[in-house]
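Why do we care about 3D structure at all? Because function follows from shape, and shape follows, mostly, from sequence. That is the central idea of this module. The next example makes it concrete: a single protein chain, its amino acid sequence, and then its structure expressed as tokens.
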Amino acid sequence: MSRHLDIVRVRIYAVTPSTTPPCRWTGQDGFRRITDNMLRLTAANGLEGWASNTSNIAVEEADGEAGPERDLAGRLRALAPQILGASALEREAVNERLLRHADDTGPKAESLIDIALWDLMARAAGEPLWRLLGGARDSLPVYASTPVFETVEAYVAFVGDLADWGYRAVKLHTRRDPDWDLAMIETVHGAHGTRIGFMLDVEQRYDLKTAVRVGKRLAELGFHWFEAPLPDADLVACAALRRAVDVPIIPAGNTLTELDALRGGLDAGAWDMLRTGPTHNGGISATVRAMALAAAHGTTVELQSYGYEGRQLAALHIALGLGNCGWFEQPVPESDYRYELGEPPVMDRDRLIRPPDGPGLGAIPEWDRIEAEAFLSFDVTD
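And the structure:
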């Protein structure tokens, strides 16, 4: 048996990019500092595969270089000995073994290992990952996923810029005060609703009565979807909301990650579509199964890609390979989450995003710069 794709080296980096400002998920949350965690696998034949995901910590808890969250990088380091000697050709076996022992924080580290193994395998085949996954399409429309702003005027100005830049839709993250949120939505939609589509994400922070009130207005305004209006795990409330409003309901996607939980939500009628992401649900292998589950229920999956280029590329390749995904999520301002690559993929003149031309994920990070800027790094070999 050929062992040329056996893993012989595992490198892990944690970086706090200076280009990324502290962020918050809603207007009532505290600011958090973002860390980029990167995994780099080397096979016996010298080929490499990589993956990345973010972690975060409250700004007030950060303490210089030691401040950003270390759990993800530390978990990757703990798992590294288990993947040395494993083959990229045996991804499913590796993925199943690692997920069986995932800890209570979720399989983020295991997800990155799976993505990096898929990348490595596709590079060995000399093909872009999206083609190996099925090659269903070669481009996706893009929506902009906004930060939280302090004023209605800031939202109006920013969404106007997004429409000018060619975005087809924008997902608003907001204060989670329903009166303020609705006033902002009305104003922004009134200013730009003829030029750009809309989604709303309130990060699971409304109650049912509030979600019904807001959801009815979103339906009247023609929003593409209402994301995370209620806690994902409250399937009864989510199903009641879905019956009460005509705007599509979609979960947050990062609390219920296992396939059985997603199946339960669809069977309960809690959501119109699924939302999940390969960097936290078990990787590309797990996301392929989630996409198949959605297809069996006659619906689609909107994949999470709010993060740096590694997270974006993993989601993009899956969406293009399997096809049942309507949009690509682009965090904006785009410069906030451009760090790993010299030339990240961008929306083209047709307002579509396409993958890079190379094999695997299609691009290679600027490793020399990343190694120089990492505040934490591990190197594990046989």
